[in-house]
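Protein entry
_____________
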Amino acid sequence: MNEVTEVLREESSAPGNYGVPVGDLVAGIEQRVATVAAEAAVKIRWETGELATSEVPSRVANLAALVLANLISNAIEATERGGEVTVRVRRAADQIAFEVADAGHGISPALQAQLFRPLRSTKVGGGGIGLAISHQLARHAGGTLELVSTGEKGTVFRLSVPHANSSPSTA
């Protein structure tokens, strides 16, 4: 919550909006989740391809970093020791799409129906607000957060955000 507040506060006082290369965004997220991944013995595979030099607006990058860190942390928790989480970056029309795929056992149909609502969690001691806040942050960035697929072989979430040359809508 403190990180979210800090990013939103910076956004309101920022002097301008500049482009942030996707590669820089990914590098920052990599650093944020490295310790959690190492402690869980889960490998993170990054597939940025030619999009590493594409840019997203700075305000979008800050919000996307929060959402992606949450999605990746969730994916690490869902994946067994020795498993792998994959983060793919793709261009989709006027947006950059980040897909986070875990190797867990999927999300139950009952939970899927309430996925982005607060206070819904399958984690022991979980507060159930991470995905709800992430969903709102994605909308605030002019993007979307969606469940792409889930099943016995894992779950995939997609965060789509405007790239630097598109004009994001505000939600």
In short: The longest strand covers residues 84-92. The chain has a mean pLDDT of 83.
